[in-house]
Design goal:
The complex is a heterodimer of chains A (about 500) and B (about 450). Chain A is mainly alpha-helical. Chain A is about 55% helix and about 5% strand. Chain A has 18 helices and two strands. The longest helix of chain B has 18 residues. Classes of the chains: A mainly alpha (about 500), B alpha+beta (about 450). Bound molecules: adenosine-5'-triphosphate and magnesium ion. The site of adenosine-5'-triphosphate has 21 residues of chain B, from helix 6 and helix 7. Chain A: Keywords: Chromatin regulator, Nucleus, Transcription, Transcription regulation.
Chain lengths: ~500, ~450
């Protein structure tokens, strides 16, 4: 965890009261906004910057649950189902009040007098009694267009009866179809049914006269038996693949996806390259820059963009010194030197404490350093002892232009590659190299080395990937060559075609 | 209907749930599911049958008297009490009713005695196996309307109920019961004839195999009821003498068999296990390869006090369901197909378009499907048979739901508002006769 403000004050030895107390933020004037209709209170509370609702706890018993209305008796009631023709009367239990409501509602006037003998006629489940609308043919129609050598009138009638009974569920119809021991497949049945339908439709209204709806139905009825048989054969083949085939197929799919992806990437990269090679073409007019003032603004603009670019590029890693004109400041080493000059016992502690703080090096000693007297820079500036490089190294002293407030681990500040692939794969490579993931002694030197190492690993990974890709491509081309030079040539030309076409629109712009 | 007021949470007891929400409309129907092992009966709309009576009955045959109804022993207690000369019989054969007088009595016993309900007041839904012939269906219709005087009645295939109970309109239903294991493809609640199949590799077969296996081992199969006390022992060679009760007569062999079935059933429940993989069961269990050594033993105590640890031999009888050639007791005649092969044959009979769907919706129910790891085995067998398409076995996790799936589906059906137009009414029966069943319930 990073330290809080008070931690820092502690470390610096500043009296907690010295700082002026934070001004409490001005109380916002609470405006009671009107809640728009259609939004529940809870939802609305989540939307705005409202204070959390305050729960008022009262010390009393819970309210009695409020049931709606009084307890209504239930009555066993006979009812008729209009979906039945025989008038079977069954009994079910109905709540009295709902009975009154419905009969009072006047759905069926004559129920009033009879008391609660029967329910209103519209039994709610009767509406599920639906059946499909099927085409029917007359004798004349049959004789005119439906005669078939293979199908007798009786068999056709039987088929249509079955279809009506099973609501066009072909699987069931084919299962139940039994006519004089004939062996009919589902395709036979379907072909007959659809041909009958089409013929009858055509006879009733010639194709040219059909309305759009009829026409659509007419063409939907077109049934290609051979195609269906073939399709089912393929479906069946699909079902009985061996495990090896299944595996092979999955492998092929994965491979295809990979090839597709890399191809896509290739195209993208190529496009990017083209974009880079194309010099930017001016689109606007240059009239604005013709005067001397215009030129000055242009120069200013270019300078600004330049500066922005530079700034971005110089977000230097923390390990490196920032680009500033001042040479390594003297203030910090001076303070350290002062501490070193003080009494041996204290100085030892101080000298560790100081660099520790200066570094943001938070170990166990940091707590000790908090309590240790911290030499203040200004006071001791006069009696500074200049340390040599070797001494600085010995005390693990370093110079910083600007210190980040708070305490933190140095390892947290390391500048490691951020790419996912690095995060995922670097542990394995580290293990390969016999380097522990976590630095056991993260001094600034080791950290710097570690960063360099990480960058190299990232580079290594990149190179490996590139190599893999290139190898893959060579493999593909080799196989293509093996499969026939002709085809490889063609695919190569396709590739260049694609790249050309991807390039063209850019040019036009 | 009444508009139900807007309420959050649980409805107060005075408010009726919106009907169309669950589509239920209860007409206090009864549901009867007669199986070879047990006959189950209860009120439609409930989730388990109120009563479950063994279908076996006891009878003391009297050569002089033709009518023996007074002497029928029906129910768990009567058939398990020792009565001189009492024989145990079963009115069902091949999963369908053979002895109508007795079956009628058992059904009447369930409804009038166990449920205390009046037959003529409730619509009655009865389940039947898919292979029930027309004659039997007409006979059932006759009994329900003539003897029971029911106001309305319907006969559904148990496979359809089982697929409904697992909330599937289309499924390949595998029912592993007592006498039969059956496979039935169901499409939109309609069972298909082609593709349905059955085999006797089920609970009874398993019981008989185990009985044979035990006697081969030299175990004394004296049932609890005939023993005065037991002394535990583990060495068969040094078995203490049996201390049997003296009834003053010898109970009938069928009665003793029934009593043996009881502890064999317990063995099935606790010790038997299905080998979870296809084709890897060791051919010779006396000469086990090294990689089979780690099989966990399970102990079982027989009624006479004999304690034994069962290792690979507890897999043997269940294995015969899938691979009949390894049965402890060699099967005479043609070797039947194993259960998995039967399912495969059934699927191969179906239209190519629905096969993948059926494989994805295999519903496994019935008492024998409770055999430990049987679904795992089934899954493995089917996956090896069909490596391409997705194979998915649906089996209720709750034991009662699996045992009483057929009943539960019937209960759902008979309490469904849209079902009430299907009932065959007494009036329709009077008009058309018993043949109405063929027209209305195909
Ligand atoms: N836990 C269990 N383990 C193994 N077998 C069991 C278990 N529970 C029940 N069984 C067996 O299941 C069989 C009963 O199954 P079920 O009740 O489904 O048959 P049924 O419907 O009466 O008969 P059928 O459907 O064949 O006419 C019996 O043989 C019983 O031994
Ligand atoms: Mg059953």
């Amino acid at each position: 965890m990073s330290g809080t403000v008070t931690d820092v004050r502690d470390v610096l030895g500043i009296d907690p009261g010295a700082l002026e107390p934070r001004q409490p933020p001005l109380k916002k004037q609470r405006t009671v906004e009107k809640r728009p209709d259609g939004i529940t209170r809870e939802l609305y509370a989540l939307l705005g910057e409202n204070a959390p609702p305050v729960a008022v706890v009262e010390h009393r018993f819970k309210d009695k649950p409020k049931f709606l209305g009084s307890v209504a008796p239930w009555r066993e009631q006979t009812f008729k189902n209009p979906a039945r023709k025989d008038g079977l009367e069954l009994k079910h239990w109905v709540r009295q009040s709902s009975l009154q409501e419905t009969s009072g509602g006047g759905i069926d006037g004559d129920q009033e007098g009879g008391g609660q003998q029967t329910l209103p006629l519209d039994y709610q489940f009767a509406k599920f009694n639906i059946s499909v609308n099927l085409l029917e043919y007359s004798d004349a129609e049959y004789d005119a267009v439906l005669k078939d050598d293979d199908w007798s009138r009786q068999e056709t009638d039987y088929l249509f009866r079955l279809i009506k009974e099973y609501d066009l569920r072909w699987v069931v119809i084919a299962d139940r179809f039994e006519f004089e021991g004939k062996d009919r497949t589902m395709e036979d049945l379907k072909a007959r049914y659809y041909s009958v339908c089409r013929n009858v439709m055509e006879m009733r209204t010639p194709v040219t006269m059909m309305s759009a709806e009829e026409g659509a139905l007419y063409s939907a009825m077109h049934y290609n038996k051979e195609q269906e048989v073939e399709r089912k054969r393929i479906v069946q083949m699909q079902l009985y693949r061996t495990p090896a085939e299944v595996e092979h197929e999955q492998h092929l799919i994965a491979e295809l996806r990979r090839i597709h992806d890399s191809h896509q990437q290739l195209l993208e990269e190529r496009e990017e390259l083209f974009n880079r090679l194309d010099y930017p073409q001016s689109t606007g007019s240059i009239a604005a820059y013709q005067g001397s003032q215009g030129l000055a603004t242009l120069a200013q603009n270019i300078l600004n963009t330049d500066r922005n670019k530079k700034r971005k590029s110089i977000v230097a890693p923390p390990g490196q010194p920032a680009e500033k004109e001042e040479p390594p400041a003297k203030a910090t080493p001076a303070a350290a030197a002062a501490a070193a000059a003080a009494s041996p016992a204290v100085s030892r502690q101080g000298s560790i404490a100081e660099p520790a703080r200066a570094h943001g090096h938070q170990r166990n000693e940091s707590t000790a350093s908090a309590s240790a007297p911290t030499p203040l820079k200004d006071k001791n500036k006069s009696n500074i002892k200049q340390l040599s490089k070797a001494e600085e190294a010995q005390y693990n002293l370093s110079h910083h232009e600007k210190l980040q407030p708070g305490v933190f681990f140095r390892t947290m500040k390391m500048n490691l590659p951020k790419a996912n692939s690095f995060i995922n794969k670097s542990p394995a490579i580290m293990a390969e190299l016999n380097i522990p993931q976590i630095l056991s002694m993260p001094t600034s030197k080791t950290c710097a080395k570690y960063e360099v190492l990480a960058k190299e690993i990232a580079a290594l990974m990149d190179i490996r990937k590139q190599l893999e890709k290139v190898e893959q491509e060579t493999r593909i081309f080799k196989t293509q060559e093996a499969m026939g030079g002709d085809r490889s040539k063609r695919s190569a030309s396709v590739l260049s075609d694609v790249s050309r076409s991807s390039k063209r629109p850019k040019k036009e712009k | 209907m009444a508009s139900t007021p807007q309420m959050s949470g649980v409805l107060p007891p005075t408010t009726k749930p919106a009907e169309l929400e669950y589509g239920g409309d209860e007409v206090s129907a009864l549901v009867l599911d007669p199986g070879t092992g047990t006959t189950r009966c209860g009120f439609a709309g409930e989730d388990t049958p109120k009563t479950c009576v063994p279908t076996s009955y006891g009878i003391v045959p009297d050569p002089e008297e033709q009518k023996y109804f007074g002497k029928l022993k029906i129910g768990e207690n009567p058939i398990n009490s020792v009565v001189e000369g009492m024989e145990i019989r079963n009115p069902m054969s091949e999963g369908i009713v053979e002895n109508w007088e007795v079956a009628t009595e058992i059904w009447r016993h369930c409804i009038e005695y166990r449920l205390s309900s009046r037959l003529e007041e409730h619509p009655l839904l009865v389940t039947e196996p898919i292979w029930n012939p027309l004659k039997k269906r007409e006979k059932t219709t006759e009994i329900v309307f003539e003897d029971f005087n029911a106001p309305a009645y319907f006969l559904v295939k148990s496979a359809v109920c089982e697929s409904f109970a697992n909330s599937k309109p289309s499924a390949l239903v595998v029912d592993m019961g007592h006498a039969y294991t059956s496979v039935t493809p169901v499409i939109d609640g309609i069972p298909l004839r082609k593709g349905s199949d059955r085999t006797t590799l089920a609970g009874q077969h398993l019981t008989n195999q185990l009985r044979h296996q035990f006697s081969e081992m030299g175990i004394r199969m004296a049932p609890w009821l005939t023993l005065k006390s037991k002394t535990t022992y583990t060495d068969l060679a040094a078995a203490p003498p049996l201390r049997t009760k003296d009834f003053g007569f010898q109970p009938h062999q069928s009665f003793l068999d029934l009593q043996q079935d009881r502890f064999i059933h317990e063995f099935k429940e606790c010790v038997s296990e299905t080998w979870p993989e296809a084709k890897t069961f060791p051919a010779d269990i006396n000469n086990l390869p090294d990689n089979f050594r780690g099989i966990a033993d399970k102990a079982f105590e027989f009624p006479d006090g004999y304690q034994r640890r069962f290792g690979i031999d507890r897999f043997l009888a269940p294995e015969s369901l899938f691979n009949p050639s390894v049965s402890p007791k060699a099967i005479t005649g043609d070797l039947p197909k194993g259960i998995a092969e039967m399912i495969k044959d059934s699927i191969d009979h179906l239209d190519a378009d629905i096969r993948a769907n059926m494989l994805n919706n295999i519903v496994v129910v019935g008492g024998t499907s409770l055999l430990y790891r049987i679904n795992e085995r089934l899954n493995h067998e089917l996956m090896t048979m069909y490596p391409g398409p997705r194979v998915k076995i649906h089996s209720p996790g709750q034991i009662p739901e699996r045992k009483y799936s057929a009943w539960l589906g019937g209960s759902i059906l008979a309490s469904c508002g849209a079902f009430h137009q299907l009932w065959i009414s007494k009036q329709e029966y009077d008009e058309v006769g018993a043949n109405i069943i063929e027209r209305r319930a195909k």
